[in-house]
Amino acid sequence: MSTQTATQVALIGCGFAADYYVTTMANHPELSIGGVCDRDGERAKVFSSHHGLPLYRCVEELLAQDDIKVVVNLTSPESHFDVSRTAMLAGKHVYSEKPLAMTAAEGAELVRLSEERELVLSVAPCNLLGETAQTVWRAVRRGDIGRPQLVYASMDDGAIHRMRFRTWRSPSGAPWPYRSEFSTGCVLEHSGYHLNLLIAMFGQVTRVSSFATNVVRNVPQVDSAAPDFVSGCLHFDSGVVARLTCSIVAPADHSLLVVGDEGALTTRDAWDFGSPVHLRRDVLPERRRLSEPVPYPLVRECDFAHRYRGSHVMDFSRGVAEVAHAAAEGRPSRLPARHALHALEVMLAMMDGGERQFAGIGLDAIEPMPWAMEE
Ligand SMILES: NC(=O)c1ccc[n+]([C@@H]2O[C@H](COP(=O)([O-])OP(=O)(O)OC[C@H]3O[C@@H](n4cnc5c(N)ncnc54)[C@H](O)[C@@H]3O)[C@@H](O)[C@H]2O)c1
Predict the structure, then answer these.
(1) What are the angstrom distances between the C-alpha of 1 and each of 5, 23, 44, 66, 71?
(2) Tens digits of residue pLDDT in 48-88
(3) Binding site membership of 63 for ligand 1 (Cβ less than 6 Å)
């Protein structure tokens, strides 16, 4: 696609995360931002003038623009359902920040609507489309660790409650929404960085056994904090078992270990699209002794030009591009809505603690991107 025929996307929600999207949209010349809006008119004005983007006064006015094909829903989690629903009712494809919705019933309604209207609906995070995740996925599919058996996945964000989070601002000046972050919680906010890849690789989760609690008792000015330490064991239909831990207490650790019956794969940071991957192979199978880790080459160089500052080595807009490409090619998105719904059910079960079984929902298996499977 050339820039002349760029797909117009609109950003609804001009808060802290919206700057990530404007920055990384430049990695995708086939996309252009045709408009922005926010229910906070002042915030929308500041954001649109900071970035020089067309401003719409309300969601309805923006959605009435025929040229806008994809809505990027960057609103607060409790608005995701309404905004995604309204956008699809107006005929727009949707890429939503996570979570899909705040309840499984609302999530199911969005999936139903997308299927009924033949619209693409995908949900962040999109690190699944990154070079690191695609490399791990390819190695698993090629049998480089034999039959996958066990996963340890960590999503510890560091002791955020002890940081100066009230002073954090995005480049366009939006404050970090700490009340929303703490009340939504680390599972809904961040477990998807691992969960999306695990569901894509191993399919449906049939049972969740989880422990959830609040280790940090008092975060000033936050009334209802979600669990800040959650560790869940996920049993996949395919036989794989995964331990997925999320916290905002332990030092930052976003690592992933995938163990098979002939070896193991590791990567240090699931957030980083280009985090190196290492392979350990069985050298003495009868004693389960593994070789030292050796680098497993990334399927391609991770060199997108437009990056966000700080700790985020992510191409946030790659998921938006995937929605636009899937819509243009009339194919399913590599971030399927049904997977996002299943991820939401699993996350909610993890936050509740205890045991939850899931009946078969017939998730389609998906494969890595074609570029990742080339020899
Ligand atoms: N904060 C981060 O570092 C970060 C990083 C990646 C992703 N995210 C995700 O991005 C999303 C937004 O997070 P944020 O940090 O930008 O939050 P934020 O509170 O800073 O921004 C959300 C914006 O959405 C607007 N909004 C809410 N409901 C709306 C509605 N119904 N119609 C129009 N505008 C509405 C609010 O006025 C606000 O300006 C969340 O889903 C979050 O999980 C956040």
Answers:
(1) 6, 20, 30, 19, 19
(2) 999 999 999 999 999 999 999 999 999 999 999 999 999 99
(3) no
